[in-house]
Each structure stands twice: as structure tokens, then as C-alpha cells.
Amino acid sequence: MTKRIAFQGEPGAYSHQACRDTYPEMESMPCRTFEDAIEAVRSGQAELAMLPVENSTFGRVADIHHLLPESGLYIIGEAFVRVHINLLALPGVTLDQVDRAMSHTMLLGQCREFLGAHGIHRVTGADTAGSARHVAEAGDPSMAALASELAGEIYGLDVLAREIEDQGNNSTRFLVMSREPDWTRRGNDGMMTSFVFQVRNIPAALYKAMGGFATNGVNMTKLESYMVGGSFTATQFYADIEGHPEDPAVKRALDELDYFTSEITMLGVYPADPRRH
């Protein structure tokens, strides 16, 4: 039986592209929300979930960091997907016929130069793949969509212009989630460890907790804070570090972190994606 990987969004979304690129042998399973994608794995409907956590242009994806610690799932991999934005239209339509383009507001903002140069007005849609589906169903030759090339394949649209984004380095980082952790693997491009923690309520606790990573030469690639339970005083931190918990330097740094924290939850130990570097 073909294994499945769940993602949030409609077929043709960039999360769908991430699933296809990273796990081409698996069946991609669209889900309405991030919670639905997580539940699909928890319930056994899918083996893995592909969840976006941050974009190089727009920063972190809202809600994901809140969902990860409570999900009951573990990070077993990461994937970096280059976001190429394409102008999609009905078959046979030419560029000069298009006067409107529909997409998620973030993609519309990333193609200002191209749209402005061609006099194309922006129309906000719920998401990228949904906009492509809308263009296909509406049958209006003056309306186009900004979406992935995969969305064009799925909804039978032609690509009028490829890679029209203003910035040439727009990428999204995804985390691959599973029901079971796997600390046994060692990646050719290094390892990553992700965890969340809460510092003890003492002066300079965060400064002291971070000192162990500096003194042991452990590179922390991400540190983000967010409130917990609606409280302005209870702050939780999400961190990514390079290395494996069994590495001597990482072990010493985590031991020191433990001393200054009230809670640490390990989210995953996984090979670094070669595209990270």
C-alpha cells in the first residue's frame, strides 16, 4: 500500500510541491488546516506531515510553533523549497489578454514589478492553489492566477510567464513530522536538533541558559519566543541548533540549558537539508 504524506492546503499548493519534491514515492494528502494535517498522522491516515515553518521573505508561519509542542509528533527531517511564482491562465490565452491576477496576498506582493509592467491588477484570493482552481472554473480569459507550475498541471492551466517573483531567493523551510522520533540517523550535511524550553524565573536566566551553547561552540540557527497560555510572563522559546544531542559539545550545552530552565521538550533530531547551506 502506498504511504501518504499530509499537507495543509489544496492540491497544487507549495506544500504539495514540497511533498512531491521530497517524497515522490508517497501519496500527497491535502488537509484543510495544519491541525488536520497533524491529526492525519496521529490517527494513522498518513505516515508523515509536511509543515511550513518559515519563509525567507516573510518570516515564520503563524501558529506552527504553538502547534508543534502539543502535536505529539516529532521532527524527522527538513526540506527547503524554492518558491517560483508563475502566471497561469486558461489554455490558449495570451499575456496581453490578461488584466487581473488572483493569488494569496503574499504572492501578489512578491510580483509587483512584473504585474505593474504589464498593467495587471491584483485580486486577493484565499490561497495560491485555490486561485488557480478558481481561474480554471471561472473560464474568464482576462483572469490569471499566481501559483506553482504544479497547480497549473493539476487544474489544466497554461504557464504564461515563469518565475516572475521580484526576489530571486525566496524559499520556504518545511519540517517533516512523524509519530515516532528517530535519533539513529546521521546526515551527510550535518544534524539539526529542535526543542522548546521555558526559562526559570530568575534574573538573566535566558542569558545564562544561552551561555552553554556559546562556550561549547554550538551554533544556534534559530531562537524565537512566544507567549504561552495567554500570559505575558510565561514565555516559551523555540530553538534549532546544529549537531546531535550525543555530540559531546551539544550534550554539555543542553546540560547547562537544563539547569536554567523549568521545562525542555525535544521536538526532533534530524539530518540537515543540503539546501540549508
Question: What is the level 1 CATH name of the largest domain?
Answer: Alpha Beta
Mean pLDDT: 92
N/C terminus separation: 35 Å
Portion in helices: 25-40%
Uncertain regions: pLDDT < 50 for 5+ in a row? none
Question: How would you spell out the order of helices and strands?
Answer: EHEHEEHEEEHHEHEHEEEHEEHE
Determine the strand fraction and express it as a percent band.
25-35%
Helix count, per DSSP?
9
Please summarize the sheet with the most strands. Answer: 6 strands, mixed
**Assigned CATH architecture of the largest domain:** 3-Layer(aba) Sandwich
Radius of gyration over C-alpha positions, nearest whole angstrom: 21 Å
The CATH homologous superfamily name of the largest domain equals Periplasmic binding protein-like II
CATH topology of the largest domain: D-Maltodextrin-Binding Protein, domain 2
Alpha-beta classification: alpha/beta
Extended strand count = 15
Tally of structural domains: 3
Using the alpha-carbon principal axes, give the shape.
Answer: elongated
GO biological process, one term: L-phenylalanine biosynthetic process
Keywords: Amino-acid biosynthesis, Aromatic amino acid biosynthesis, Lyase, Phenylalanine biosynthesis
Domain ACT: 194-271
Protein name: prephenate dehydratase
